[in-house]
Amino acid sequence: MFEIITPLFLSLIVGGTLVGIIFGAIPGMTATMAVAVCLPLTYSLGLDNGLALLLGLYVGGISGGLVPAILLGIPGTPSSITTTFDGYPMAKRGEGEKALKIGVVASLAGGLISLLVLDLFAPTLADFAIEFSYVEKFLIIFFALTVMAALSSDMLLGVFSGVLGIFVSLIGVYDISKGGNGEMRLVPPGLGYWLENGFSLLPVLIGLFGLAAILEQAEIGVPKGHSTKDIKVGAHSRFSFNVFRGQSFNLLRSGLIGTFVGILPGVGGSAASIISYTNAKTFSKTPERFGKGEPAGIMASEAGNNGLTGGALVPLLSLGIPGDSTTALLIGAFTLQGIQVGPLFIGNNPGTWDAMIIAMLIANIAMFVLMYFAIRYFALVVTIPKHILFPVILMMCVIGAYTINYGIMFDVWTLLIFGILGWLFTKIRLEVAPFIIGFILGPSAEVYFVKSLESFGTWTIFFTKSWIAIVLWVLIVGSIAGSILMARQKRRMEDHG
Amino acid sequence: MKFTRRSFLAASSAAAVIAAPLGARAANLPRNMRMVIGSKSTGGDTYQTSAMVADALSKKLGINIKVDAVGASDAFKTLARDKRGTTIMIFHDQSYLGYLYGVTGYDNIFADYAIGPTVAINPGNAYLVPASSPYKTMDDILKAAADGTRIRVAIQPGGVSEIGFSAMKNAAKVRAPGSEDNIVAVNTGSQSDKNQAMWDNLADVINGSIQANEQFTQLDSSDPKAMRFVWLTARPETLEQAPEAGMGGTDRAKMLSFASPETSVTLDGSKDFTFDKEFFFLFNKDMDPEISKAIDTTLGEIYASGEIEERQKAAFFIPNYLPQDQALKHLEDKRDTYAKVIDDISSKS
């Protein structure tokens, strides 16, 4: 088994992980892009070495997203949105290095939990995954959407923002490749040429988080001669493993949620960190600290999104069905080498299976080592004067938006439109986090909701389909009730000063 | 040696010159070309075959060709915008089937673009039933429809996935007029959705492919995931060119048993319906014809040397180079055949 660990194999994993981290850390670049760029290289590398490179890119790409999420408040990837909620407030109060290290350790924990699950239970879990039809997938998305209420400072405005996000996400063609009818809807007259495919996620995401923050700062203005020395990286932000005391269950739960969401094809990676984050907040003794720089929030988000990495490989290697957009590309690597992926893959290719498990393990360790020890240098980003930093960020955002769909100029306009919208949101008290969650989950919610009704022909199917549906309803009702109780508690505290 | 800024610039310039492609074949052939494809997936068959062709062409022509998986709608828009010849496109029969089925974003490629040479066929388009299904063959399915049983077929509407479904309805109509109404579409999305529709008992038959579904046909019949091929739409002449070992546990002889003439889905009562998923070039109509000619001629030489054919066969594609003029006639004939099938059954689901 260990004969596959050659110097080339190791260096491809470590190199892939490093490149993946860089892709993940640049807003607009994702793990999927990193894998897509390097996919043709795997033809000459052979299957095991090619997979080593791609899995390193995958793990690094998912993990790298936490860097800009924490230091700049811009999620490097959609799955690190919830990392911004507590990471950025920590960075703003001078705990950027600490927040980054918490994120890296949580990422390692999530990655290893999912790897263990992948190694031990892959075929069994794949059989369980096919129990999830349109109905159960809709209920999972619905459960993730209930987080909108919990993440809002004003519940009514938060839910409104979320519903607005869903509405905007539905603009364009109801895509036939997702089971839609191919009809265009919600597109203003004359804009059909540009809005045929709606707004792309990443330009919207970068605009709302990145450009809007720059506009806000521009409005405040940077005092003359003032650098960002107010954000210090030093003794008071020192990281200690003690911060994880009492958080083992949070890490385990979040890693398992991420793994579970990854196992379900079509649910999407962002849902993993969103559900993990909501659960951490719901079960926390101090939920009011979430969103203001609570380390447990970063742990949940990062363990959740790295938990996805092993989970998404379960349906790929057991059913030939990718769990997310990045693992969809891995099928290309197998096909290039003439290897079929399906229910017989693990039994027919034990060597490749072992190579993948080892590569994932090494990639997770490499990610931890590379990021943990490089963090002090990453963290120096906050010491760059804003009048230099912001134009650079803006340029990176524009390049990221332009390249995400291979050079579509409308994506740059999308970035600018949503940047201005994000800035306006703060003026009219609409909330960005619920909006973006609605925007991300809206299309899946629509497809699974419509398909459930089309397939089963009755509303009652959402309650009667299976025991899984009933469990999900319990979680949904619990999440909504929890949000209402938290909001009432918060109001009482505010009333009592 | 002292490394000055000037020496750095000189070295950089020299490296850039060496790295630049050496002498393009046609004087007006762009040095950098963008090949857009009609799929957004870089793991699918369109990307795979386009990457092989782009690689061979760029080596032979000494130019750079980058494959971008932008999807059909954006690929057509990009191609329509670029008259300089720096953007070319590869797609398959979906490009005209989408138009025939009235899908948003699909133009009449024969009127709006120049059809280029064909390059390969994916012979894998298939229809499957659960291993426990009472239907063992297409004949069983068409008989059941004639007897009044409703047959649900999971497809992705508006293209390659639907054309086989339309052919089933057409065959049912030819065999027993009126029975075509008993063959109904279950509109799904990806292959994963189609498989899931079968496992949820929402579909009796699903569209799939040899590549994606073959392993499910090797599972023990007691496994709820187990499937069985009932029809491969490819022409027998196409499948005969596939490797003898076939794919996985299904060898070429077995594949041929699921295709015409052994498995018959009639077109008009005398001939069988067949469908090869064929990949071909599309060019901007106003592009310099010298550029498309250079690409066509070079492809002819590449295919004559045989190297790309080996690579395509290893990836389970059937090499199928037809020069530009022959390709146009061939694809127009295909389009006319399928347009008639679609018109006859008026299935625009």
From TrEMBL, chain A:
Signal peptide span: none
Regions crossing the membrane: 52-74, 99-122, 134-151, 156-174, 194-215, 255-277, 355-375, 387-404, 410-425, 432-450, 462-487
Keyword Aminoacyl-tRNA synthetase part of the UniProt annotation: no
Keywords: Membrane, Transmembrane, Transmembrane helix
Segments forming a coiled coil: none
Residues in DUF112 domain copies: 11-437
PANTHER family, alphabetized: TRICARBOXYLIC TRANSPORT PROTEIN
Protein name from the UniProt record: DUF112 domain-containing protein
UniProtKB/TrEMBL annotation, chain B:
Keyword ATP-binding attached: no
Entry-linked InterPro entries: Bug_dom1, TAT_signal
Keyword presence, Ribonucleoprotein: no
Signal peptide feature range: 1-26
Gene3D superfamilies noted in UniProt: Bordetella uptake gene, domain 1, Periplasmic binding protein-like II
Entry keyword set: Signal
Name of the featured protein: ABC transporter substrate-binding protein
Originating species: Pseudooceanicola albus
